[in-house]
Amino acid sequence: MLNQNINLLRLAEATEAAAETAAKGGVPAWVYIVCGVVAACAIAAVLIVRANRKKAAPARADEAAALSQARPEPQVERETLPITAVGNVHGIGSRPDQQDAFGVSSIANNKLVKEKGILAIVADGMGGLKNSGEISQAIVRSALKKFSDFSGNQRETLLMLGANINGVANDSFDGGTGTTFIAASIKDDLLDFISIGDSRIALCRGSSLLTMNRVHNYAADLDSAAARGQVSVASAMNDPKRARLTSYVGMGEPKAVDMPAAPIQLSKGDRVIIMTDGVFGTLSDAEIASALEASAPEAALRLEALIKDKKKENQDNYTAIIIEI
User: Fold this and answer.
1) Cβ-contact 279, 287 below 8 angstroms
2) Span 222-244, mean pLDDT?
3) Cα→Cα distances 243→89, 126, 216, 218, 229, Å
4) Residues paired with 125 in a beta bridge
5) Mean pLDDT over residues 261-290, rounded?
6) Alpha helix (H) residue ranges in the chain
7) Does 85-324 carry CATH code 3.60.40.10?
């Protein structure tokens, strides 16, 4: 047990050292930190399994002999769920410029889908800042171009894409602009994603809609403070800075990056939706889930009709990608 604790301690030290090295070498430190957390979770899981095995009673000699003669069970391959359809909605609303951008890798490229799965990405340029439409378009183009180039598994590819996106934003644009982004990867029956900002990714299963990422805005901080009793609910709800982003691409080093603890297993009939706040800020979860009962292309048409029917004053740009499993 002492050796196991030492291993965990060494891992923590190595992660911290890697982050310092990353900062000196230009690679975003959060990439190493996320990888370190994932590795620590994996080691902890192994230690728990080993401990449980030690607690188990030893098999009798005759049982052990029978087990040694038993044939190993055949390996069951992971189910490969096809992407049935992809739909998208992309509107300017009542704004003078389109600052949202989106893209999806080819689902018709069988080789790419088999090796890498598909990539869907949405970016929402920050209103009121210069070049916000240009930066959102630039990171989407770069992500789609680089998706097939990176080696590694699903999560490693997303981490490298995140580092690339941040590099493009910081190298090509000054600090006076910014954008959110969510990049989602679906391979076989697994969904993984990386997110910065307040755009959202949600899973619709049956009639239920579940938001899967944590948003990075001042509203989230205020709501957390209200839940702890540090501020009143009224002041948290009425704070004029609620919509202000606390982490975004283009700020240098993002203050927060969100990924699930592990890839999410999908089931046949699931819908995955990635959307900007022009969608979820106008429609309720119930309205979005209702639209997603249709096929992906039809769901996109329903979402746009619902948004336009609201006739919302100062309707923001709205963008969504719907992936039907």
Assistant:
1) no
2) 91
3) 23, 11, 10, 6, 21
4) 179
5) 97
6) 2-25, 29-55, 61-69, 110-116, 132-146, 154-172, 218-227, 233-238, 277-280, 285-291, 296-310
7) yes
Residue-level pLDDT at 174: 80
Is residue 234 predicted with pLDDT exceeding 80? yes
* Residue 97, token pair as written in the block: 């410029």
Is residue 72's pLDDT more than 70?
no
Question: Helices (DSSP H) in 73-217: which residue ranges?
Answer: 110-116, 132-146, 154-172
Count of alpha carbons within 13 Å of 101, Cβ hemisphere only?
23
User: Mean pLDDT of all residues in the chain?
Assistant: 82
Confidence at residue 75, expressed as pLDDT on a 0 to 100 scale? 52
Q: Which residues of 156-172 are buried (b: 16+ CB within 10 A; e: fewer)?
A: ebbbbbbbbbbebbbee
Q: How far apart are CA 161 and CA 196, in angstroms?
A: 12
d(CA 321, CA 294): 14
For the segment 129-158, the average pLDDT, to the nearest whole number, is 94
pLDDT tens, position by position, 149-177: 998 999 999 999 999 999 999 998 987 89
DSSP state, residue 261: S
* Window from 8-22, 67-81, 232-246 with minimum mean pLDDT: 8-22
Residues 6+ apart with CB under 8 A from 290: 207, 302
CA–CA separation, 292 vs 23, rounded Å? 43
| 295 vs 34, more confident | 295
CA dist., res. 134 & res. 125, Å (int): 8
> In 3D, which of 287, 95, 120, 129 has the Cα closest to residue 199?
120
d(CA 198, CA 201): 10
Fill in the amino acid letter for 288: I
271-275 sheet: strands from edge to edge: 85-91, 318-324, 271-275, 200-205, 208-211
Task: Give the whole-angstrom CA distance, residue 9 versus residue 193.
Answer: 28
pLDDT at 6: 36
